[in-house]
Amino acid sequence: MAATLPPPRLLPSGDSAVTVEFSRTIDDAANERVLALDKALAAAPIEGITESVPTYRSLLVHYDPGKIGFDALGEKLLAIASQPLPPATKARRWRIPVAYGGEHGIDLEEVAKALNTTPDDIVARHVAGDYRVAMIGFTPGWSYLSGLDKSLHMSRRQSPRLFTPAGTISIGGVQAGIQCLAAPSGWHLLGRTPVRTYQLHRNPTFLTEPGDRVTFFAIDHKTFEELDRAAEAGEIIAEQVVA
Amino acid sequence: MSRLVVASIGPASSVQDGGRHGAQRYGLTVSGAMDRLSLAAANTLVGNEPFAAVVEIGPFGATFTAKDGAVRVAIAGAPRNADIAGRPVAMDTSATLKDGETLTLGFARSGAFTYLAIEGAIRGELVFGSLAVNARAGLGSPYPRPLQAGDEFSVDAASGAPELRIELPKPVSGPIRVVLGPQDDEFDDANKALFLGSEWKISATSDRMGYRLEGPAIKHLHGHNIVSDGTVNGSIQVPGNGSPIALMMDRGTSGGYPKIATVITADVGRLAQTSAGTAFRFQQVTMAEAQDEARKFAQLIRNLPDRLRSADAVALNIEALSDANVAGYAVSAVDAGTWQVAAEP
Predict the structure, then answer these.
(1) Which pTM was predicted?
(2) Subunit contact B294:A66, Cβ cutoff 8 A
(3) For A189-232, how does the pLDDT look when each residue is reduced to its tens digit (9 = 90+)?
(4) Which listed residue, A24, B2, B17, B312, has the most CB atoms within 10 A of its CB?
(5) Residues B319, A119: Cα–Cα separation, whole Å
């Protein structure tokens, strides 16, 4: 039997939630443990837990203190979290079309200049990446991806933009992102996808789940317009690949 | 069916309920009423489920007119003068607008949010079980935005049930209680003591997303950037400028500033109802105390129907009211419904 893993830290987040922290930094191994704990709680629910929210390095567990207290819940969470990770299961994989550069990716040229290369090379490196949805947050469907090519790591913009469009595909620091709704952002905008990771009247409302794998492929701006119309009509235009 | 028409309304007023739960993992903000006890009290008065959809009215005044029939309503929360066609309406009571009559609500005398519940509740299209307005995400029903004059609700015709008042426990006064964490270890003892020992005021730039706190600057041990993690209602995060922000119902589901402490569930509504500019303090409590208070708070809301009284019984309190006035407390007879003589159960 495999050895048990070092226990995470239990950080109280008020009287009705606890943060199960596996790391203080962005760390793929920690994120895997976050998602494994999240999955284990979904498979075998603990009475009193109302909702769990995975992030890069921690799982926020909301619970009803009328049903279970901090100490009892903490003990159960630690027991599950110190179990060896189950063998990796087949993750869902999404192929996401992106129109790079131009009006859809206004920072592409600047990023290329800053990294001493060409826009085509930046696109090639971004498309070559094999990403995982580490967490979803900030605004509905905003998918934070790990797996960005090290050569594309660069600090965020000095001054964040107050508006960036829906569907923005961007990079910031060590992260890549798929943004669903228009929102402020300090990341570098490489392109736009017509894919809606969140669409209210569609089934499913949310496309991506923490743990899903993601790859990108380039489309021209005319294809973007066509796919955008289809997506607006509720079609799921992201291609799902069974790994 | 009757209609209740918004004749006039100030900013920061919207349809709210118990909130949108279960999709924080997808980045979906919870929203919901800033003061859950007052939400539940208003709903209980008109026989609704405690967390049914109501009108959350910001600090300014508002008027509502009944059309095509009578409408039965109740008000709870931040106290303000109210009348229907000149007949005074006390806080924490129900009242009925006859067809064509107008309910007039004044400015909040203290606090911020007053809850107007409508018998039969506001109807609309549920998204993740909620009608609550989340203007940033374009969610909420029947109007996915703050309310405006001319908006209207299709509502049940008034049942004609006798009017009620609800005897709420005396409001807790004193500091807003917190438990430390989740990132209190990002602050040294001196700065934790500064947070817990100082007087704070809520900035006028606060909103449903967060209450900005004015007071001394709180310094971090290792800088203000942490890797984003999850937030809760009442998370107190400290950004780079050292001015804490208490995250409220329209908070983002994750955030990247260290959170020094978390307001206990029982006190989030009290913080929400603290007026901008009013000085207050925080007080640290243990997890056991906080969870005990959370359970009592949930029980209080569950048992609100036991606190309903006939509205006529307000008259019986006149003697007690005059005693209180003699004792030096100014008690408004109009607000008799908010003034308590009954012992807490």
Answers:
(1) 0.89
(2) yes
(3) 999 999 999 998 898 999 999 999 999 999 999 999 999 999 99
(4) B17
(5) 82
- Tokens representing B193 are 């003591």
Which of A9, A13, A71 to mutate against chain B (most B CBs within 10 Å)? A13
Pairwise CA distance, residues A142 & A166, whole Å: 10
Confidence of residue A3 (pLDDT cuts 50, 70, 90): low
Amino acid at A235: E
**Measured between CB atoms, does A210 come within 8 Å of chain B?**
yes
A187 CB contacts (<8 Å, ≥6 apart)? A156, A157, A164, A168, A170, A171, A172, A175, A177
Say how many Å lie between the first and final Cα of chain B, rounded: 38
pLDDT tens-digit series, residues A215-224: 999 999 999 9
Q: Are B238 and B258 in contact (CB under 8 A)?
A: yes
Q: Which of B137, B262, B264 sits opposite A139 (nearest CB)?
A: B137
Instruction: Return the beta strands (E) in A58-160 as ranges.
Output: 58-63, 92-100, 131-136, 143-146
Q: Are B92 and B166 in contact (CB under 8 A)?
A: yes
Question: Quick check: helix, strand or coil at residue B105?
Answer: strand
Residue with tokens 């419904």: B337
| Sheet of B62-67, strand order | B87-88, B82-84, B102-105, B62-67, B2-9, B152-155
**Rounded average pLDDT over A113-136:** 96
Q: What's the rounded Cα separation, in Å, for the pair B165 and B319?
A: 18
**Cβ distance of A56 and B227 shorter than 8 Å:** yes
